[in-house]
Structures are given as structure tokens and as C-alpha cells.
Amino acid sequence: MQVIKQYIEDNKQRLLDELFELLRFPSVSADPKYAPDVLNAADYVAKKLTDAGADNVEVCKTAGYPIVYGDKIIDPSLPTVLVYGHYDVQPPDPLELWHTPPFEPTVRDGKIYARGACDDKGQFYMHVKAFELMMQTGTLPCNIKFMIEGEEEVGSNNLGIFVKANKERLKADVVLISDTSMISMEHPSLETGLRGLSYLEVEVTGPNRDLHSGVYGGAVANPATILAKMIASLHDEDNHITIPGFYDDVTELTAAERAELNAAPYDEEEYKKDLDIAETWGEKGYTTFERTGTRPTLEVNGIWGGYIGEGAKTVLPSKANAKISMRLVPNQTSGAITKLFTDHFLKIAPTYVKVKVTPHHGGEPVVTPTDSIAYKAAQKAIAEAFGKQPIPTRGGGSIPIVALFEAELGIKTVLMGFGLDSDALHSPNEKYDIFNYYKGIETIPLFHKYFAELSK
Ligand code: BES
Ligand code: MN
Ligand code: MN
């Protein structure tokens, strides 16, 4: 432990400077205008892996953005940890809400403000630096492989193909990912599950052109009104989702599991204050933790139609659209849910409009084991670095690769995240605490140490 702390202390500024350099690449995978920056970010990651001491570093081409691979095999008879992360980030919009530019990392109050600071550059880069630390101090106790992708934020479409084609290269005993949250630094936690995702877009079309809302209004169905009604009908008064069959496959938690989950510290007042809301909301009969971690949901991610420019324009729009996502829990599958949604949405469409549903991407839910050697190693590492036992929680977000690794490679994952829900992932002013960054670099070598020890 002293060796680890000393190394971090001796390299403090450089560890931060390098992360800042990584954060300056606007590697937004969703928007093609950033393509050169995404590619440059991949090259930077590859260079840093090489510098840290990795072998076989390769920027592997895919049909989309490349996957950066690198490894260090010290002894084939030792266990192998596969570290996964993503160098792509969400779009920074709306730009005007950022207090400092999203791709010019700025420190305020001990926190790094930048798009990707927490999700996931700040977090995966801790692994690159922890690896460097282990190499430099001669303490790498097991084999390590890195796989850092560039399409996580857009559904990891090419990753499945890569994994299938590289089964031997990716062979490992466990996947280690830092791309999730902790409750707080005072209450370290380990996520033991992730929700799945079904994402689609809907379009409601009324008349064949935008109409004068005075000349035609009242006689022709307005697609925006119809879309709003259709969407509103997807939840009942108890905030249950009304799509027939939607809950059929949902695994209900046992009373003991619910009690364990709800034992985690949760401050409702703090939660509301952080979000500036008067009340929390959700499915009747469930707590906030249960709602985000164990229950499926349906959200509108964006909705538009008609005139949204400056001033006013009296128009009855021809079309209205929405992007809708559903978070899924164990036993639900994205394919089946996408179909249920599509059938239902077309069925509730009134005859005076046309409705189109276009699926985007999906991911399957996962629950990670808590009785494995790897999970125990993570528990021990966190307990030692934080001076407290981690609390198991269920994450509300999705990382599609986790289910895929399990299905294709038969490898389970440990989700050892160091972010906070309040780090504003995907929002303006995303941040990552410098403390968490160093704490992560300190905890990761301990994970490897205990994983190697417990595997003996
Ligand atoms: N790192 C997040 C997922 C996450 C965040 C899990 C916090 C648990 C806690 C990841 O980058 C992400 O945003 N995933 C997407 C899914 C993807 C298919 C677009 C998501 O959850 O929306
Ligand atoms: Mn992420
Ligand atoms: Mn994300």
C-alpha cells in the first residue's frame, strides 16, 4: 500500500496532466463531424498503453470506430484480468449550459469539469495508470489485457463482431470495468447489476405538409397532440407501464434482496436538492433504489415537431417525433421488448395519423456474481483503500458489453466504478473528483493483488 501511495504522490501532476490531454479530444461517437477527433483519441490511448508497458498494442479497425487492445502476459499460468473501458463520449450539448468549455478540462473545487471526465475517460484511464504503477514498481501480480472501445455511447454495434472474432485474444478469467457509480466516497459501493436497454424512435405523420393552423386547425388531427397522447398513455396512474406483457418476464426480487438493497444509505432530501425537484417520482410500491436498479422503465429522451425556432409561427405540423428508451431488468430481453413496444404503439395509433417505429440499439440486463473470487478481491481492495466495506448496489445504467462478454466468452464482470451519480454523466458540466481519480489508481492495484492471491 505504501508503495502505491508513494508512486501516486511522486507522479501526482503528471497523472492529472495526461488525463487532461485525453479529455481534450472531443471524441463524440454520435456525431460524424467529430470523426477525426475520435480516431485521434484512439491513437492517444494506444500510445499511452505502450508507454505504460503494454505489449501487442493495436488500434483494431472495425466497421465503425476502432477498439484499442494491449496486454501484458507475465506468466500464462497466472490468472488474467481483461480491463474494458470506452474512450468515446456523449455529445456535449446543450453547450450554452457549460460553465467552462466541455473539451477544455478545468478544475474547480477539486473537481475536473469536462465531457468524459467521469464517463468514461477519467475512469478507464485510472486503469492505464494503475498498470503503469504496477509495471514501474514491479508489482504486477497477474496477466492483464486492455480493450478500450470507441462506440459505447452509441450502442457498441461493432464490438460483438470483434469479440466473436477475437475469442482467443480476449481470453481472461474476469472482466474488470470502471464505468459505474459509487454511492459516495464515504459510502463506497460496488454495482452488482446493470439494466438492459431498448432504444427506438417513433414518428407520427398527419397531413402531407405543414398547414396553416387557422385555416385547417380543428379539422385535421395534429400529430404533436396525438403523439403526446400516445406517449402519455404508456404509463398508468400508478406509473406502471401499460404495454401488454411488458412485465411478464421481470424477475421480482425476494424480500431479503429488497431489504439488502434498501439498507444502502439514501438521503431523499439530498437527492431532491441535487436535482432541484420538489418530489421524486416513479412506479408505485417501489423505493428510489428499486426503481432505478431493479425495475424496468420507459423514458422519452427527446420529442419534437412543428416550429421550434425564434418567435411564433402558426402552423399545424405534418410530423411529430420522439426518441424513446426502455431500461430492462433481468430476464427481459431487448428484442422481445422492442417487439412488444412496436406492436402496442402501432395498435394504439388512431386512424387519422400514420405511425412508424424504428428500432435503434439495445443491450441486455445483467446481474454480476457476488460470491466469486473477483468480487471478493474487489471488496477487499475497496475495504483497504477506503477503510470501509463496499455496499452492493444495482446500477440503473447500461453497458451492453457485459452481457455480451458473458454470452460469447463465458467471462463474468466486476463493476468497480468510482463515479458518483451527481457527476452529471451525459449532462452539461460533467465532472470527476480528483480525489476519486487518485483513489481509483490506488484501489486498482489492490484488486489485482487480491485477485491473484485469492486465485491461488
Ligand atoms: N457508463 C455508462 C453506464 C452507467 C452509468 C452504468 C452509471 C451505471 C452507472 C455508459 O457509458 C452509458 O451511458 N451507457 C448507455 C448505454 C448505451 C447503449 C448508449 C446508457 O446507459 O444510456
Ligand atoms: Mn460509460
Ligand atoms: Mn455514458
TrEMBL record:
It holds the Pfam family M20_dimer. Gene3D superfamilies: 3.30.70.360, Zn peptidases (3.40.630.10). This is Dipeptidase. Residues 193-352 form the Peptidase M20 dimerisation domain. Keywords: Hydrolase, Metal-binding, Protease. Signal peptide: none annotated. It comes from the Bacteria. InterPro entries: Cyt/Met_Dipeptidase (IPR051458), Peptidase_M20 (IPR002933), Peptidase_M20_dimer (IPR011650). The lineage of its organism: Bacteria, Pseudomonadati, Bacteroidota, Sphingobacteriia, Sphingobacteriales. GO terms for molecular function: metal ion binding; peptidase activity. PANTHER family: BETA-ALA-HIS DIPEPTIDASE, SUCCINYL-DIAMINOPIMELATE DESUCCINYLASE. One of its GO terms (biological process) is proteolysis.
